[in-house]
Automatic annotation (TrEMBL):
The keyword Membrane applies. Part of the ABC transporter complex PotABCD involved in spermidine/putrescine import. Responsible for energy coupling to the transport system. The complex is composed of two ATP-binding proteins (PotA), two transmembrane proteins (PotB and PotC) and a solute-binding protein (PotD). GO terms for molecular function: ATP binding. It catalyses: ATP + H2O + polyamine-[polyamine-binding protein]Side 1 = ADP + phosphate + polyamineSide 2 + [polyamine-binding protein]Side 1. Its EC number is 7.6.2.11. This is Spermidine/putrescine import ATP-binding protein PotA. Belongs to the ABC transporter superfamily. Spermidine/putrescine importer (TC 3.A.1.11.1) family. Residues 12-240 form the ABC transporter domain. Pfam families: ABC_tran, TOBE_2. Keywords: ATP-binding, Cell membrane, Membrane, Nucleotide-binding, Translocase, Transport. InterPro entries: AAA+_ATPase, ABC_SmlMolc_Importer, ABC_transporter-like_ATP-bd, ABC_transporter-like_CS, Mo/tungstate-bd_C_term_dom, P-loop_NTPase, PotA-like, PotA_ATP-bd.
Length: 374
């Protein structure tokens, strides 16, 4: 039997779960389903309630309201050790005096299981630490120690592995390696991973589904690409990458919306607008910097018909290797960021140049500024 078959559980479902400390609400009533076998990330800035949410799934924190379900079973009243759930923390919490084998075997030994060798060997192989079995934790790098912590949790065959900023203590390069490593491990074991992070790149690299949290609630939930391409709030638009947000007014409400913004008339597909779509309505029109192309004003006639256009002047230009990043100010005073890739040194535009920014209207999104919290 494969480990995947042994540990197959069910969806994690949070129903109206909330947490208050005195008069402070850390997590507002939350309904959330984490599909079985998915890699799910809770993403948000410090203090937004992601760890508290994770701890309520683990049973380490009692929910003020609501229930926690696993595979259709209500586990709200089960103590942590009776839940088929394990947690990996940022501080690996390995036993310093035990070698790696004994650290990984710990959960089995505690349950009185004597012959642990095969299971420990399999786990060490899974996390690619077979050659380190007899070392003590202090003889391993941070990334290796974190992999031991993952192996130690997985050996208990949890239905869900909870990871609380597990890569927070690692330097950037190792962090990136471990993100791919954890993703590989999750695919291999096939159980549900719920991962807490404040790093949007990390969440997008690893997770199938990301819940973006802000002020104790989930602002938006979706696949990384959907969140990035179609953010529904300014918080999400700004937290996941960089967005240009231009204040505008709807001037026509046909099949596509037409918005007066940045000194131009810009097309916004109706389905990409999360603000009310009535004529005269005000909204924020969003476009990612890398979706914008730049043309010198003298070449404006060459721009294909049907593209959104805003004129402006370059006020700043920086070459950062993979792209050149421009700041362009429109006559209306809006500063827009533009990232262009693969431009030759001699064709880069310089500050002062009069330009036309243009992009495919399909990449434009519309946000309701009035709806934002925090
Ligand atoms: P971080 O990334 O900094 O860990 P987080 O998003 O995980 O942040 P939580 O740890 O869930 O945030 O905390 C959410 C809020 O609840 C914070 O404002 C925190 O100060 C508060 N909080 C957490 N634990 C307690 C507690 N035991 N008593 C009072 N307030 C608490």
């Amino acid at each position: 039997m494969t480990q995947q078959q042994q540990t197959a559980g069910g969806d994690v479902r949070l129903v109206g779960i909330s947490k208050t400390y005195g008069s402070f609400t850390a997590v507002q009533p939350l309904d959330l389903t984490v599909p079985q076998g998915s890699f799910f990330a809770l993403l948000g800035a410090s203090g937004c309630g992601k760890t508290t949410t994770l701890r309520m799934i683990a049973g380490l924190e009692e929910a003020t309201t609501g229930t926690v379900h696993l595979g259709g079973k209500d586990i709200t009243d089960l103590p942590p050790y009776k839940r088929p759930v394990n947690t990996v923390f940022q501080s690996y919490a390995l036993f310093p005096h035990l070698d790696i084998t004994e650290n990984v075997a710990f959960g089995l030994r505690r349950r009185g299981i004597k012959s642990v060798k095969k299971q420990v060997d399999d786990m060490l192989e899974l996390v690619q630490l077979g050659d380190f079995a007899r070392r003590k934790p202090h003889q391993l790098s941070g990334g290796q120690q974190q992999r031991v912590a993952v192996a130690r949790a997985l050996i208990n065959h949890p239905q869900v592995l909870l990871l609380d900023e597990p890569l927070g203590a690692l330097d950037l390069k190792l962090r990136r390696q471990m993100q791919l490593e954890l993703k590989r491990i999750q695919t291999e074991v096939g159980i549900t991973f719920v991962h807490v992070t404040h790093d949007q790149e990390e969440a997008m690299t690893m997770a199938d589904t990301v819940a973006v949290m802000n002020g104790g609630r989930v602002e938006q939930l979706g696949a990384p690409a959907d969140l990035y391409e179609n953010p529904r709030t300014t918080f999400v638009a700004n937290f996941l990458g960089t967005s240009n947000l231009i204040a505008g007014e709807i001037v026509s409400t046909g099949e596509d919306l037409v918005v007066a913004a940045g000194g131009g008339k810009l097309t916004l597909p109706r389905e990409r607008c999360s603000a009310p779509t009535t004529s005269g309505g005000r909204l924020l029109l969003g476009i990612r910097p890398e979706k914008i192309s730049l043309a010198h004003a003298d070449d404006a006639d060459d721009i294909a018909a049907g593209r959104n256009r805003v004129t402006g002047r370059i006020t700043d230009s920086s070459f950062i290797g993979v792209s050149t990043q421009y700041v362009v100010e429109s006559p209306a005073g809006t500063a827009l960021q533009v990232y262009e890739q693969n431009i030759e040194r001699d064709t880069r535009l310089t500050p002062g140049a009069e330009v036309v920014l243009h992009w495919n209207p399909a990449h434009t999104f519309g946000l309701d500024a009035a709806q934002d919290i925090a």
